[in-house]
Amino acid sequence: MLRKIRGTLASPYPFEPSLLPLLLYGLGSALFVFLFFTVFEPWGFSLLPAAPRRALFAGYSLVTFLAIFLNGLLLPRLLPRLFREEAWTLGRQILWMGWVTLTIGLGCYLLSAAICGHFGIPAHWVRLRTIVVDTFLIAIFPITLINLANSARLLRRSARVVEETNRRLEGPGASPPKGSACAERLRIMAENDKDSLDVILADLLYIQAEENYVRVHVRGETSPPPLLRSSLTRIERQLRSCHPSLFRCHRAWIINTTRIARVEGNAQGLKLTLKDAAGVIPVSRRYVREFRRVIRGY
After folding, report:
1. Exposure letters 55-81 (e unless 16+ CB within 10 A, then b)
2. Domain count, the chain
3. Exposed, middle or buried, 199 (CB in 10 Å: 0-12/13-18/19+)?
C-alpha cells in the first residue's frame, strides 16, 4: 500500500508556468474566497460590525490573489531547476499547493491583525492557529483529492490519444498526410535571409530551438547538427504551409510526423519516439488537439 502511494505521488504531473492561466487562476480563487465569506460568514464573522467585516472579506480575496500570483510568478523564476516540468510530480504539485495555502493563511493572519487593530476589535479574533494552521489542515484534503482526480483525468485523456495514434501509425496502409506540390527538398532560411540549409524532407527528423538559434536534426547525422540563427516560430511559418507533415508540437520542437515511430503519454501529455532519433520529444498540451487532427490524416 505504501509503495503504491509513493508511486502515485511520484507520477508525472503538468506544471503550468504561463502568465495568463496563473492570472485567471488567481482571480478565480480570489472571487471564490470573497463570495464564500460574504455568503456564509463562517467562524462568527457575522458578529463583527459591517465595516471591518467588509474590509476583512475584501482583504482575504486580495491576499489570495497576491499569494497565488506572486508565488507562481516569482518562485519558478528564482528556482527554475525545482520547477522544471519534466521533473514535476503529483507529490510536488500537492506540496506546492500546500505552500501557497500556507502563504495565503499567513497573509490573512497579518491582514486580520491590522484591520482588527484599526477598528479596535479584541485580539481574540486574531488567532495564528485558526487562521494559518487550521486553514492549511482543512484545505490540504480537498487539494489532494482535486489533484488526484485531475491526474486521473489527464491520464485517461492521454491514454485515449496514445491508443488512437498508435493504432493509426501501425495500421495497414498508413501513410503520411498529403501536402501540396512543393518540392521534397526544403530550404531552411536564417533570419538574415542569407544563411540557409538544404535538407531532404524524408531525412529530416526534427528542428529544435536553442535560445536565439534552431538546430536541424536529420537522419544519419555523424557530426553536431547545424545551427541557424532564427526563432522556431519563424521557421514554422516558413515551412508549414508547403510541408504539412512538419508539425510544431512544443515551444521548442518542430517534428517530421512521417518519422514518428510510437507515442506514449502520461498526465503531463504525450511523448513521441521518432525513427532514427534518440530520446523522446514532448507534445505540449496546447498542441494535442492539433496533433490528433494531423495524425487522423494518416
Report:
1. bbbbbbbbbbbebbbebbeeebeeeee
2. 2
3. buried
Contact assessment for residue 253 and residue 277, using Cβ atoms and an 8 Å cutoff: no
DSSP letter string over 65-88? HHHHHHHHHHHHHHSTTTT-GGG-
> Within 10 A of 161 (CB to CB), how many other CB atoms are there?
19
Same domain, 236 and 138: no
CA distance 63 to 53: 15
Which contiguous run of DSSP H or E holds residue 51?
Answer: helix 50-78
Q: Are 270 and 280 in contact (CB under 8 A)?
A: no
Query: How many whole angstroms from its chain centre is CA 244?
Result: 26
Q: Containing H/E element for 274?
A: strand 269-274
Q: What is the pTM of this model?
A: 0.78
In this structure, the answer to whether residues 122 and 231 fall within a common structural domain is no
**Rg of the chain on CA atoms, in Å:** 25
* Domain-terminating residue out of 132, 166, 200: 166
β-pair type (227-229, 246-250) = unpaired
Name 104's bridge partners: none
Q: What is the pLDDT of residues 49-85, one digit of tens each?
A: 899 999 999 999 999 999 999 999 999 999 998 998 8
Question: Which CATH number belongs to the domain containing residue 207 in this structure?
Answer: 2.40.50.1020
Boundaries of domain holding 248: 175-295
Q: Which three cell numbers stand for residue 55?
A: 474590509
Neighbours of 183 (CB within 10 A): 10
Average pLDDT for residues 176-191, to the nearest whole number? Answer: 66
User: Quick one: average pLDDT of 127-149?
Assistant: 85
Give the span between the Cα atoms of 230 and 193, in whole angstroms.
10
142 and 214 co-located in one domain: no
**Residue after which a domain boundary falls, among 145, 166, 187:** 166
Same domain, 144 and 49: yes
